[in-house]
């Protein structure tokens, strides 16, 4: 069977309209023109094409997504252990893939120990694992709001960790945001999204688990606001609008950094008294399950987080952890 990726799908005749729209946006067309939705990003589960051409009706119901919870006092080893519990990075990344990693680098005001930005060792380890799995490119990017991007990238430690691991730190150009339709959206039906996030083969969402005054917590769903223009406009009806964004971005893998968590005064923090060390990394192809488990580290459930509940209601993942294959490991 052929190896189908999002890029290969776009070149087939059945997706000619999608490919033409992307070509126009990147090669002189109107960048604000509405584009049709992209095909669903490849996940760890085989598509009907990859499973011998069976239709969905001919296949058994999908098993609950696996979720790994790794604990240990070394962030790099803990991240590696979490991925190993899911079958290794090669479960998600194949040779020649274009990978985008989206950490939380909201500001350059504080170094990593303040738990406002994703742990650089977690990000660097994911870059290295993607490279080992054969990724052709691994790009790391975010849209900081509290500092210039170069400063935030440097102070967070993520730029140095990415470069050491063989990845590329990318500044998100305004020219690469494009209006995309959100066909499953219940409030948002279209938005300007960073094109590379939707056209890559693999998207890895890497939030740090932290308090947020408006959304209650910043986890995988909330972290995706860093890939759109005007994220402040999603603060109205933030639960549903964030879930709508998740429906079109669909990370291949969500890795929640809970090495340190920010339990108050998020999202930017600034007081080490608000930081708790948990030495935990949560990983799953199911963003709803990953966020639901991460919420328990704060004494909450997924249902307590409006965007997690909204994503669950839209069928974007499993919120009931009793129905999830949770694999706990020690690094």
Coarse structural class: alpha/beta
The tally of beta strands, per DSSP, is 12
Instruction: Report helical residue fraction.
Output: 25-40%
**What is the straight-line distance between the termini?**
37 Å
Structure description:
The chain has 331 residues and is an alpha/beta fold. It is 29% helix and 21% strand. The protein contains eleven helices and twelve strands. It has helices at 6-11, 16-26, 75-85, 120-132, 149-156, 158-164, 195-199, 220-223, 238-249, 287-296, 306-313; strands at residues 66-71, 98-103, 137-142, 168-171, 177-181, 190-194, 202-206, 208-212, 216-218, 253-262, 275-284, 325-330. Strands 1, 2, 3, 4, 7, 8, 9, 10, 11 and 12 form a ten-stranded mixed beta sheet that branches. Strand 5 and strand 6 (190-194) form a beta hairpin. The radius of gyration is 18 Å and the shape is globular.
Quick recap of the structure?
The protein is α/β, with parallel strands linked by helices. It contains 11 helices and 12 strands.
Give the tags.
globular; ten-stranded mixed β-sheet; two-stranded antiparallel sheet; disordered N terminus
